[in-house]
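User: Continuing from earlier, I have the next pair ready.

Assistant: Great, send them over.

User: Here they are, in order.

Assistant: Folding the first of the pair now:
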Amino acid sequence: MSYFVRNVQLPQDYDSIANLLNTILSEVTNSEELAAEDAKIPTTGSLYLNADGQLSGFDRHRIVAVNAQGKAAGYGISWRAPWTAAGELNQTLAVDPAYRGHGIGSMLYEQLEAWAVQNGASRLNIEVRDDDEHSIRFAERWGYQVERHTFESVLDLNLFDTSRLSWMDREVHIVPLSELDAAVWEEKLYELYKETSYDIPGFSGDFFNFDDWKKWTLQLPGSKPEHMLLACDGDQLMGMAHLLYYESTNSMYHEYTGVKKEYRCKGIGKTLKLRTIELAIQQGISYMRTHNDSLNRPMLKINRDELGFKAVPGNYKMIKDL
């Protein structure tokens, strides 16, 4: 059966895109979430070369591979946000496993890379599951190489040893954002995210401005103020932990943990982690997920050796210089 590539047509393509993305995502998405994400992004992008000749600005190119009957078998997107590192574009490619091996991925990728070259990108980034040999080989054939490895871990809360909650330092004052003055504490959260993000191995590019940070952090699907836990020292923010709730699987994703430098090495990060587990158990959550960069050994040790998270397939970040 022959396929051809066309630009996405919205909203009618949302269901097909969600189905294709769900073949590569850890948690399912749906057309409503995709539409809500699009509503946060300006409809018209603007790419340009900065004073150093590096690609800057923001835009995206989205395409699908469909047959004569309109059935979508593959989806691709090339994009950069204003905070993406200069010169770089990010790529995502998803092909229905039932239609792999028929050249659909190559058809899509050729157009994505042509768009990147046309706009002057110097580096392309793509994420591939570390247990997906087919996709790894595909990326390697197109000239990508592994830059870093992100591990994924899962905690089955039905099997969690609740005696570990006694390790929590109850002297640390932890309060959900829902019980605080959001106008005041959101600014403090933003500064903490900004400070601690630069400590994450592999972080590159600029940080969000405040409004974009709210859209892509506090307003993520599954984010609620009661699931944003703040460790406070009076009116000072020491650290925080942020959970996302997935109703379809009754699970939570540990989106972020951060502790300000002057409060580190005092057990605050571990206490925040334990408090999120306690909250999830209280709410009857089935399991929690999290990711750690392979170079973030201290947090990986806490999650797996001390809290009992178990390893599951993670992701390779693969890069290609143009």
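And the other member of the pair:
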Amino acid sequence: MSDMWKRNRSWLWPTIFILPAVILFGVVIVWSSLQSLWISLHQWDGLGPKVWVGIDNYRELFRDPQFFTALKNNVIWLVMFMLAPPLGLAIALLVNQKIAGMRFAKSLFFTPLVLASVAVGVVFTWVYTPRFGLLALAYSAFGAEAPALLSDPDLVTFAIVGAALWPQIAFCMILYLAGLNNLSEELIGAGRVDGAKGWDMLRHVVLPQLKEVTFIAIAITAIGALRSFDMISVMTQGGPFGSSSVLAYEMYEQSIFSYRFGYGAAIAAVLFVIMLVFIGWYLSRIMRAEDLR
């Protein structure tokens, strides 16, 4: 037995350490996803017996105007959230400077990251309050009246995304700060010898070394935008009149409040496919860029 262990320990030890994570991933992620897909083919209230309806839930989904409203809002979230990586990089470059008081500034930019999303939602709900919120005070300083952002169907989604961007930018800043602290001093020194500075140094020396960080930042930001839920739940509950709902919140509302778990699972399946297509496309672009190098 000991001889067999010695001969195979090069793969047995990694297997022993990886196996618990693989089992957990298989049960929590893979099996749950397959169960959700199976439920999407049924009419089910969460308690009684499931009734097979095939793809009827999907047919109804693509005839539902609220689904397309939620899908449009997800696109808005995705587009606006793509501001987080470049803004996070800009702030990281700023606070990474060796200037007196910059450590204090860095801690201020870091603050949103340690706040719960619920807390951020509550804070910005107060900020957007038309009569006595921070936005109302800013408008009143110029003799104007603040708009009721969370009550306007055309502006509410942009207002919520603006609130959600605050911690997301802080997250990207932390990623880029870690990347900036691991830059090659030799490459930077060589760039200075060649006369690179300012924008040229950033473009040709710094950014190429931050490609891995940028990949992580964009991927996590995109996933965060597509699965947005908590800020909407805290700030508007999908209102007014469903105008701020997204696919994740629509899935929750249909399943929990309308007792339509099959229909909610169908929304979850569509959201999963959208995430899969986006991440697959993004990975293919990254790998193609690596092959061209």
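Worth noting for the second one:
The first helix runs from residue 2 to 39. DSSP finds 14 helices and two strands in the chain.
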